[in-house]
Specification:
Elements (H helix, E strand, L loop, with lengths): L2 H37 L9 H26 L16 E4 L3 E4 L4 E5 L2 E6 L4 H6 L7 E4 L2 E8 L1
Parallel strand pairs: 2-4
Antiparallel strand pairs: 1-2, 1-6, 3-4, 5-6
Length: 150
């Protein structure tokens, strides 16, 4: 698979995973709201069940907003050409791991290779930001070399 097709497939897998997260947060938020509605008004001033359910709903609403924001970030990745430096949307191949700079989703397996999705806000990214293929950098006392970049 050529590099742009591989990157496109990585983005598709990330979008699928993020859509699952969005759906899960929405479902949990709706469940908490429905539970609060079914319970009705508090029975007395010490009855906190409805308040707890509304608190859960608000928590899941925040998670939903974050998940939607992250999903929108994935739509901003350019697929026009290969990256020539470490930046948002780049796939970085090193000796011990492969990284995809997008959002933090964890490990994605594609064609029997693991790619770790990382955010541009994490320290590892900051250590290699702007570097090019063949450059080396040090992170947590370990020297790493960028073998390939696209």
């Amino acid at each position: 698979m050529d590099k742009l097709k591989l990157k496109r497939r990585l983005i598709e897998l990330c979008i699928e995973e993020q859509d699952k997260i969005v759906h899960h947060a929405k479902a949990r938020m709706d469940e908490a709201q429905q539970s609060a509605n079914e319970y009705g008004q508090p029975q007395d001033r010490f009855d906190s069940y409805r308040t707890q359910m509304l608190g859960k709903r608000d928590m899941f609403a925040k998670q939903l907003c974050k998940a939607i924001d992250d999903r929108n970030v994935l739509d901003r990745i350019e697929l026009i050409e290969e990256s020539d430096k470490v930046a948002f949307g780049a796939v970085i191949v090193m000796e011990d791991q492969n990284l995809f700079v997008s959002i933090s989703l964890g490990k994605i397996n594609l064609e029997n290779r693991d790619y770790f999705t990382i955010s541009p806000l994490v320290p590892l990214y900051k250590a290699m930001e702007g570097l090019k293929k063949g450059d080396s950098f040090e992170f947590n006392g370990n020297k790493r070399i960028i073998i390939d970049l696209f």
